[in-house]
Amino acid sequence: MAIKERRIIYKHVDEDGYSNDIDCYLKNGGYEVLKKAVQAKPEDLRQEVLNSGLRGRGGAGFPTGMKWKFLDFKSGKPIYLVCNADESEPGTYKDRQLIYQDPHQLIEGMMISAFAIGAKQAFIYVRGEFVNGARILEAAIEEARAKNFLGEDILGSGYSCDLLVHRGAGAYICGEETGLIESLEGKRGYPRIKPPYFPAALGLYMCPTIVNNVETLCQVKHVIDMGGEEFAKIGIKGDSGTHIWGVSGHVKNPGYYEIEAGSATFGDLLHDLCGGPLDGRQFKALIPGGSSTKILRWGETFKVKHPNDGEEYEWTVEDIPLDAVSIGLCGTFLGTGGSIVMDDSTDMLEALANLNAFYAHESCGQCTPCREGSLWLNKVSTRMTSGLGREEDVPLLKDIADQVAGRTICAHGEAVAWPVQSAVPKFQDEYLDKIKKQANGDRYNPEGFPLI
Amino acid sequence: MDLKPETLEKIDKLIPRYPQKRSATLPLLHIIQEEKGYLSKESVEWIAEKLEIQPIQVWEVVTFYPMYRREPIGKVHVKVCRTLSCALVGAYKTCEKLEQALNCKRGETSEDGKFTIEFVECIADCGYGPVVQVDDKLYEKVTPDGKADELIEKLKRIAEGEDVDSDTSGERSPAFMG
Asked: Distances in Å between the alpha carbon of A385 and those of A5, A83, A232, A350, A425?
């Protein structure tokens, strides 16, 4: 199959001569959808988003229209809209391109969304490391304010909403929506327990709040532009629209590619767009959608029955279609679309140790299973890679991970556990082989770069 | 506390934009750290008073977030990404090379006070690894071969006060990507 990109929200990313100022955006038809939207009824806009079947692009894939439907409109308290621009899931770098290259698309998407949910104030929570990104957003907001696309009485509609950029300070956990809200309140990014603290009812300042990812809010602009039903025709049933695949690791052309959901496979993406493996190498493993998603191994096959057509398929990793439904059938997740590719030069135990070190560093420390479990996993796997591995460490890793997942306030517990729970059964032969070779004083897989 | 008038003005304009004062804790810490280089007891107490909260409420934020620091750092702040995508293409080797060339261990400041090296977690530029953030510039594809050597030369020039790569225009320039 010839794979083709379908650029909707990345239409102007890396386009020659396209700049991130408002004049360029307006020249390309910018803010026309907002003009249309503020003439509509907010509930009609929300219905369009629900009809579109749009799923959140921050990793969890929750239907956006449904999230908005849960909003408590009757509380009498102010409603807030927060854009999650924390982009901290390893392997993910899709929102960066939108923030840096096309900030007005995000602002337009946000103001349409804010109008649709009746938000009185909106925030962009941007990760602290995007120093220039925050400056670009602030400049863009002032440009949009000068043209009355945000602020007081937007485009004469009587609706007012301000937008403020809030920088984080390097904590992964602030990408979790309730951790993000705490951080926005000026506190440590400790996620809140749900129930009762569902943001749609008790969010920022205990007021109804919607937190949506950058890409999601950009997609909303296109949903309103083309109408929910038209948008739902893009992609497949259960996963509409396009996904941005940010590929990193061992491929010839790493990069970001916007692809209609279900229109191509991982094989098409990795071979045709990314140029295939490096010379003389073969693919070995793939983390499909950000480091927390479960790893896939070349050589394994997936027997699935697809709910959309009722057909049975037997897929290899490269046959899996690029949509949330199909990927879900293979026991992992589309997540953020941040695909990390590893070839046969990779020491899989070191790769796991690398991720364990990440999650140990990023656990917020509230829940004992996650705080202690992530540290143990890190200690055990680091020890195993430094030549002191024992055979019994392999099941020990799995055992620790099994006791973290499902026992924490937020999904960081799953993020800690999933890489281990998925990798240990798939790569334990390699781990055991490495342990044996290291005991003989040999370095395992000397061709790859050290990962820990 | 001694702050530049423009910094004070910035702070006074920012606080009322938040529905609740305490929300301004993170931005105020950023602004003051930028001016002073780090967050002292005096700075923390000043912020607490400004936002009408207790100093401990500011301290708990300072100690939670990796980007806030309680001690001064070197003249040039070098952050090498450690996480998987960058590691797969050589980040550990790149970091080692920088440590040797700058005579500075990760997590520390060189004796001459010129460099601080940190080995940080993912900075969201995974397809262009290994990435190295230098103050507010982002250098991409700093592989342990020639690209790391090029960066080392630039870092030495930056430490001498030279203006390097500060132009924000141009495709994927370090100052733009920062």
From this structure: 40, 39, 47, 6, 18
